[in-house]
Amino acid sequence: MESRYNPRQVEEKWYRFWEENEFFHVQPDSGKQPYCIVIPPPNVTGILHMGHALNNTIQDILIRWKRMQGYCTLWIPGTDHAGIATQNVVERQLAKEGLSREDLGREKFLQRVWEWKEKYGSTIVNQLRKLGASCDWRRERFTMDDGLSEAVITAFIQLFNRGLIYRGNYIINWCPRCKTALADEEVEYQEQEGFLYYLKYPVIGEKRKFVTVATTRPETMLGDVAVAVHPDDERYEFLKDKKLLLPLMKRELVIVKDEIVDPEFGTGAVKVTPAHDPADFEIALRHKLKPVIVMDQAGKMNENAGKYKGLDRFEARKQIIKDLESQELVEKIEPYIHSVGHCYRCNTVIEPYISRQWFVKMRPLAKPAIKVVKDGKIKFYPPRWEKVYLHWMENIKDWCISRQIWWGHRIPVYYCRNCWREESEYDFTPKDVNSLKGVIVSAVKPERCPECGGNDFIQDEDVLDTWFSSWLWPFSTMGWPKIKKRSPHSIKEGEKLNDLDYFYPTSTLVTAQEILFFWVARMIMAGMEFIGEEPFRDVYIHGTVRDEKGRKMSKSLGNIIDPLEIIQEYGADALRFSLISITAMGQDVYLSRDKFISGRNFTNKIWNAARFLIMNIGELKEIRIDRVSVFDAWILTVLNQLITDVNQSLSEYNFNESASLLYEFFWHKFCDWYIEIKKKDLYSGDELKSTQAKIILIYILDNILRLLHPFMPFITEEIWQKIKPFLPLAYSSLGKEYRDFPTIMIATWPEVDDRIHDPRSVELMSRVIEIIQAIRNIRAELNVPPAKKINVILAGEDGEILDLFDRNREYIMPLATLDDIEIHRQDIERPDGSAFGTAGRVNIYLLLQGIIDIQKEKQRLRDKREKFYQDLENVVAKLENKEFIAKANPQVVAKVRERKKELEGAIQELNSILDSL
RNA sequence: GGGCGGGUAGUUCAGUGGGAGAACGCCUCGCUUACAACGAGGAGGUCGAAGGUUCAAUUCCUUCCCCGCCCACCA
Prior knowledge:
Oligomer: single chain
Radius of gyration: 37 Å
Number of strands: 30
């Protein structure tokens, strides 16, 4: 074995071994308890970033832990077709060839997207393999697979039949670049510096009278149809029966009174642009105003914009202000910070826009989804997310599900060419599609129109929002709708369970806070609606991975730390362990490259400890171990405690705590103390002693490897396979049953052994450690060469610990580089030439006569102290100098004060060392 | 405007009604046959500020100040 762990050599090997032997694959097993996680499907366009790495490490830890505990454990992987994102990627590719999707046409374009998917779509799942994710790849799904597409269509039709789907002209969020509608959640608001423009609208029939309105988007004035004021606003009483003139367009505007207007804001008068502002749209509905659409789908001004037709919206803004200024109709322009909506896929400024879209009525779906959380059937970790969830659910708005793109599930609605008439674009009443003539909702193209008997149909051009397939993920991946979940009592004894019967509801959902509304909330609604049961029991929401400055990692900021690079450099185990160590429940993770060093160092430590044991193990003979030393009892008891604590923290999703427990035990108990103590036996030449030592060392190593395996799957497997041949013998020597497994990943999870439970040994050992550390401390402070063996006298009333030292002197002496220990069961007078220290109720005398020159050492320390005194005097003088205090930079003064404290501390310390000599 | 999270060592962060911790960095000593990616020792913090509850507060309560996030019809 090499002295350094080399992850590259082992990771690929073991992953292939696991996957080829199908250790990840399971079928429902009624003899076991199920444990199931569905992966938050990454976008097919995705490449593994730290957020994925964290998310999937957490899932893999849970899965591997439960699998070893004996659950029938299933982790379903897959990818999301990510409608807009994927379409954008392929469109960019086409653009390089000078083509647009329109050039290709719908069919050819979709073919191109599928080709892209076949070629690049498995990038991210292969990267998950590198991370060590133990997904059941035989069940890998894609949201546009046949089965999942069927689920989407079925869900749409079911909602339609329940009257929960409607079509309507409504104001929605429009991305002028993607040329599609977006759901409210798909808009990202960013604070931006802009201007608030105060525009003067002349009052008709009055000379030199104006109403001033404020707006951040002057170009929308072209679509103004009214000005609204608060009903109680007396300032505008004079406008009764008056109208305003819309400048530039010479259109008459009515005055409407509406409660929504805040008299405090701006001038208290609001221009009303129903076609381009959601609030104005609502006002228009209330007052029966007809909207004027002044932009096209690309965000350019249209024919309703008069002479501004063809201008981009931002160009138009400049031009309009210029024109208004020349007519002296701009009262003022103030700098203004406001939040502007951006497309979450391409970051273009969103335009509120009236268009015909499909919607889902959400209130009826939200109701059971609220109840199931309130009833405690779904628990959030950390719990604060429950409030966030409920607040959103209780104020839920209808979901715009249609998208004007091509890549996705096409809406299963057909229009009869013969009898269907498109409703007016100014008809704003939501349409129950059943009431529309010639509109047919159907999974397949209908044969005949039920209205007129026609047989010529066109399908709706739109596709469904990506999340309309994602929200079905927990059960569509299990075969719904072909497979149905049956109620437990309808299943006959011995009858085969299907995946839904067995694995649904899944156990834990592990996800990021960003998609709580997008995905988590909607999955709960879908689960209740389509299966009648919650989709998961626990929701663990981890934090966002950010850079060291707290910014999100993004390509444009160039602050990405690539997990694959970290894997290449330090190994997947180091990446996983480091990530998990710094992830406190639900807290954001601030990451920098050096965070991974501690994980890498830990893998190396594990490697070398194992290397040491394997090198020393030689041949092992079976013996009967029925008596163990206090040290053995200590490590076995601490191991018991570790098992309990790791189970506890994992079941509470305190992953960082589990990680630090394991780290602490392995490094600072097992390596620092237990192995060091056992070296005596290993090197003793006494076969019984060395065999017993080997057996317990191997046994502990086996246990810790199993406990570490969920966190660090690769290195634990590599080492475990090397020690595996010795395990049957080690187990039987300890009187334990050993079960053989081909891989550690399905080996049994360690259990607490009640036969070995000796809290007394733990108490004693902590005092032993304390005394040894005190000895080392004195040695270091007095400059005793680390390799120089010395004698120590321990004296005092603590008979118990003194006995322990007495009996185990040969184990303890190497730990402190001692030549001999002399024990006195009562205190003694301090011998000449000794240094003094205490630990608990034990006095420690280090016999340094002849080792160091005590007088000389004393003199050295006194000299040192003298120097400090002089420095201190100078510092104090400086601080008492009023001129200095008055003139000097406060930072300098603070530094001098700090130095004073430092010196005082150092002097005090030297005094205490001198006292002990 | 409403809500949430955070402010603890030089840095990044755990944690707790009674003893202040880890990693990385720093200082001293040591390449002692598992590991220098190591070992031994050490320095370093009025736990954001002010009040209150308590025998006891970094921890619980109130107010305030900074940082971050989410939600909202910020015209």
